[in-house]
Amino acid sequence: MPSQKERMLSGQLYKAADPEIRKVNARARKLTRLFNQTTEEQMAYRQELLKELFGQTGDQIYIEQPFHIDYGTHTTIGNHFYANYDCIFIDTAPITIGANVYLAPRVGLYTAGHPIDAAIRNEELEYGYPITIGDNVWIGGNTVVNPGVTIGSNVVIGSGSIVVKDIPDNVVAVGNPCKVLRPITQADQDYWQQQKAAYLADQDLK
After folding, report:
1. Which regions of the chain are under pLDDT 70?
2. Which domains does the chain have, with CATH numbers?
3. Are 71 and 51 spatial neighbours (Cβ–Cβ below 8 Å)?
């Protein structure tokens, strides 16, 4: 018979009041509390706490305070990650984040769900489906990513979006529900290369 934690991680109904699950949650609460209480003079300690909190991390991860997460051990993060103020990860199911991902303020990654049927929901049964985010993704402020969603690589999600379905690679997507607005094209790359060149030229003049 699978444990409640095994049921939780496999997308089946489970009860979060299980002692094993509560133990993992208590550990995450302690580590996030310690992280959120650190000062600017404790950058190395912040990194130690994040390395201990998450299941796996790459290099160069930076998270602004405050930050909140349910378990931590169910989340993996790639290289060069940034999360702005007040992001929330509900990692009942695994959250997998690729390299070069930027999260604006108040982005929520919510893997948890509750049954639509009230009688079952009132028995405190719940479930979780994984969230996957590819490489080179920027997610705008106040965006919510719902259970079971995969966001592809080289994607921009507009602020205030509610992402309920998968988003393919190489697009700008926005809205509630979040939908593809347009592809990211060579014209976008050319424009931003020009902006970079102007920036570098300006720096050379100083």
Report:
1. 205-206
2. 4-204 (2.160.10.10)
3. no
